[in-house]
Amino acid sequence: MHEPASAAIADAWQRIGIAVSVDLVPPQRAQDREYRATFPSFDLIELATDLSPRMVNRWHSRQTPLPQNRFVVTGNGSRYQNPALDGAIDRYLTTIPRDARLQALAEMIHIQTDQLSAMGLIHTVTPTLVDNRLQHVTGKGTRSTESWNAQEWELVS
What we know:
Layout (H helix, E strand, L loop, with lengths): L2 H13 L11 H4 L2 H5 L15 H5 L25 H12 L3 H18 L18 E2 L18 E2 L2
Antiparallel strand pairs: 1-2
Helix pairs in contact: 5-6
């Protein structure tokens, strides 16, 4: 757990009247799968999200760490389980027509925002400055702004 972020978030919640007790988990305890899976509070983690099958599937009930699977299943760290959400995820991942796929996505988002199964608090930004005379600069990936293709850059006057 990141101590400065925890302190800032705890302070913000206390300002709106929510009692907060920060419990920093030592590294040795953080490796205890059962402890992490049954932690009785909020767990602040850094998680990049997108609409890839891998990321969407992490919210499915079958990705929930439970005693039955010896807490070795990973993904659904919130342990929120909902058959309606599972159905929407399954439809999103297996539907080809765009309109039907977007409908399944809308249902997923509605359930998650209505039930608040996970809540984004912090957004990491990594700005990259590129002179407008430099062309053919691209990011390393779809979620990246770090330039990596220097061999293709071209400087124009």
